[in-house]
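Record format v2
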Amino acid sequence: MQRRLVLGTLTAMVCVAGASGVRAQGFGLNEIGTCAVARGHSGTGAPCRDASVIYWNPAAATLLPGFSMYVGVAAIDLGGSFTHDSTGRVDDNTVATRWPLHLFMNYARGRWAFGAGAYVPYGLTTQWNADFPGRFVAQRASLTSVYFQGNVAYAFAPGWSVGGGPVVGYSQVSLRQSIDLSQQIVPGSAALGTPITFGLLGIPFGTEFARGAIEGSDVAYGFNVGIHGQITPTIEVGARYLSKLEFSYDDAKATFEQVATARVIPAPLPLPTGDTIPAGTPLDAVLAAQFAPGGPLSNQGASTSIHHPAQAEVGIGYSGLPRTKLSFDVAWVDWSAFKELDINFAGAAPDQRLIQDYEDSWSFRSGIEYAFPRQIMGRAGFNFVQTPVPDVTVSPILPDMDRYNLTLGVGVPVTDHLSLDATYLRVESQGRRGRIVERTSRAQTAAELNSGFYTLDANVWSFSLNAHF
Amino acid sequence: MFRLSTIVRTATAVLAVAALAGCDDSPELVNAPPPVNPELFASYVALGNSITAGFQSAGINDSTQRESYAAMFAFQVGTRFAIPALAEPGCPPPIDNFQLQTRLGGGNGSTCFFRTPNSVTQVLNNVAVPGATAADPTSSATSASNQLTLFILGGESQVERALDARPTFASVWIGNNDVLEAAISGLLTPTPGVSRGVTPVNTFTAEYDKTIDALLQGADAAGDPPGAHARSHLQGGVLIGVVDVTNAPILFPAVALFNAQFKAGFDIAAGETTTLLPSCTVTTTSLISFQLAAAIRSGDHPPVIGCEPNSVPNTLVGDIFVLDATEQATLHSTVAAYNAHIEALATEKNFAFVDPNPILIGLRTSGDIPAVPNLASATEPFGAFVSLDGVHPRAPAHQLVAKAMIDAVNTKYGTNIPDTDIPRIVP
């Protein structure tokens, strides 16, 4: 608990609002360093000359001069919607603008470089209206993960270096969802051998009778390593590997509140227990016992775990054109490790298993940097991001889809030691069919579950100060 | 009345695995061809009572529900139509043998297998409930409510459930139960436990208007929730008139009892030899409800048949289960008044109107519905168009209603919905 409080404080100091709402792949984020973003996230083969290399390629820290510091923020304005097939209703994603920060420091001397950084490689916030039909999967989902990394880099040969360091990750997760009465078991029916749901008694799917929230946090450990080399005076290459971090939110808290359905039992209803609910009985009165202390929907402890996947990236840079650097990276994320999300309750609430079945994904990143007079740098980039989310898992928690990112940025010197980077990133997608119900069995197909169309777009502005001493 | 405890036991095997798999997005849908007019029929809802719900032979299940004229109409216009499917054999299972009064799957009138898991949906298109009267669509519970009211609507009213679909088109066929129970029981005035009587015309019209207003105003007032947008609201509809229940096949001319063969069949159904009282003459115009046979068999009625009130002084013999000429006239005029109002309202609201009575009369005239039940038939005592309860239509009759509805809509809205090749049961 003590370490969590400490890291939590650091998180608050370093990353005021670490979570973000736009995804690189899955719930990954690449808004780490304004320069790298401007070059279409191609920051491994031909790293930017700033301290964000501690993330993008830890080996390249030896290329930086003396003491370097890089601090910045990205403003992520997410747009998106869901259009329901059967009603034509359109719901917009209502997540507020998010502000993930990053901070890197590096000191290089001779063949060695030492540094540290704090950044947000994974994060997620999705939020929908309180009456969104898919709120039973997620009305709001938030994952805030901040990685703190130490780094040591060493130039083992002219033009070649290796680097890396331990990563301490701090993660907070929260999920808010409505609870659907139609999926609840009628009291007493399970004792007769068959669980009869309220849905089978006619309660419509999507009848909200409770809201639940789960919140937890954890610390996990990993590492980030890289290698960088100058093959020729104009060609450089690099690679990096960020290990998987396994977060177990064992001390999470689950809270529940009853929501009035305002329904009445229209005719006498005999229960399996032998009791009969009289006609005219408010359904809410029947359900109130669920929320009493010791009831299945009383506040209680919970646990879950989320593995933040490993990621690797290789790239190449070419600077043979006048005042120009071209870069191209290929990135891979081990999303196939994310198969299920289990939520276990310490009390009587039924455990949940959210089937995810992510797949490994790739992204292809390209960028260009042009040196204008007066040390003004112009940057642009394009990348294609393949979603790890299969057709059957496109849900309100993360309606992910393939994306095309277009970037444009500039670096402007402020003083001899200080420059300002600014970047605009536009995220485009073609939309994708998805579901607003939970997938309860792997036998269920996308064709059976998907009932509407998700869209996604985003505007990202990133600003950083780059200091060299 | 259904008993949940026995229901649970009988339903166990069927529902064990599937109970938790129900979800919004695999509801029981009819599979429709390409849409005829996507904008007008983007979301169609059907309000009504047992006929619209697909009740047949004193029971209802997934199969009979797919034989409803409303499902047929949805199929023909090519729009989504989610039904509150009730698992086979039904809730209760339909009668499968008229003479033995046995039910599908061996159940009885209390058997209920609940909704199918896949029918648990957020957006239901057929919200009609067996037993509903004109007062029911705007209320979640009335004196006419039964357990099917819960199993279909889940505690909402028909209008509320219909509005969940954000309908662009609606059909309403309500009112038969405002006269049917009185007609079949022969008691036109309210009699506790036997008959709710005939709903007065002014009450009926007020309740009917309330339904239509709630539907129209609800669709408009629903508006767009914050951050969400909806398609345009109710653009059209069909109002279907009330059936002249004196033509219900379960009512047969009392004079038929002078036919020895028919009388013998009736006595078999009643479980003993019955005696015709002097009030029954060869010139009587009274109608007898076939439910009289069941009442005699159960001992609720003595084994005598009267054709006029006071056939046995100080008893209901000759009154209960009997419609004399005066009562028939009352029902005729009441239904006519109902329908005059419904037709006028349809005109006012720019809805189409369908009068079902010419269809029924046509089937009577052609002999497709026999003048008296064929008691020798276990499967078609009321002909091929009427189910074994003598009240509810079978698929061929639903096809005729669907055709009439399509023709009325085509005329009213200039659409071109095909009125041929209407499926007998919607897939």
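The helical segments of chain A are 2-14, 34-38, 53-56, 283-287, 446-449.
Confidence is low (pLDDT under 50) at residues 1-23 of chain A.
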